[in-house]
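Run log, item B.
One chain of 359 residues. Sequence copied directly from the ordering sheet:
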Amino acid sequence: MRVLVAMSGGVDSSVAAILLKEAGYELVGITMKVWDYESSGVRGKETGCCSLDSINDARRIALGMGFPHYVMDLREDFRQHIILNFVDEYMKGRTPNPCVLCNSHVKWEALLQKADQLGCEAIATGHYASVNMKDNRYYIARGVDPLKDQSYVLWGISQKNLARTLLPLGGYTKPQIREIARQHGFKAIADKSESYEICFIPDNDYRGFIRRSVPGIEQQLAGGNILNREGKVIGKHKGYPFYTIGQRRGLEVALGEPAYVSHIDPDTNTITLGFREDTLSTHMSVRDCNLQKYAGIPAEGLSVTGKVRYHDKGTPCTIRPMGSNSLMAEFDQPVSAITPGQSAVFYEGDDVIAGGIIA
């Protein structure tokens, strides 16, 4: 099989290529350039998957293993679908997860289109997860390394795209992947540090990114009221897009005990503070759902485990269909800081049942 392998220049995608090559696949390497350092507005050393160094690393790995490598410019698609959505969601008082949206709407679609152009039957990435199939349904399953499992960010991939996806790293831990790279003579790649920031925000300052993206935002929004849970004005905020549900630090308001952001209202330019119990909820609605393991959710409900953020350990819940592409989740116990705009992903054991955006 001829496979298009996405290569960022990091250890994960490089070892994905090594494993596929050793398994006998014919490979074509591709590096996706989704942003450029200049447009990020951050000064300093260029790092990350789209830097020139990373692109060159990916090319060296590909050529060293004897297969061709290409660079695909996705900057405009990325700007239209991811960056503009990112800013718009914060302006609507929500907290987006751009990596999920990028996988679903930019990377997989672009990779498969390029795969067709290059005569590749499948695509492969270096995500720590697996693709399984049961009863003619494709679905993502957790990777074996609990510290690196990336199934959460892959809930949005469609059936037709999962059918052509290979994820070689699902059965490995990160230390094993680094060791494979060393054994194949790629020590510099093996020792690369992890990258945790959003790729288009290399300094990890999303507030600064929004300020640069929306000129005059602080003049527009600063001075809005901070309310307590009774609706009384207790302070002024610096602009509601700079806050997120469950936030505790940087509030500059004393309530006598730890305070948390419990509500953001862009229509009234207010944020509401409460105590920890005010951030707890047993219900949430989820929109824009994508079903993976099953073609439908029974009306009487399905018992699953729900994650409301990437590092969430998950909480048992029951999900029920609620209109077109929507679900209602009822948790067995209260969950803290369920945040509109973030992804909710539902599991049956290690298998992804469905995912969507918290409404």
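Observations after the first pass:
- The two ends are 41 Å apart (CA to CA).
- Confidence is low (pLDDT under 50) at residues 43-47.
Flagged for discussion on Thursday.
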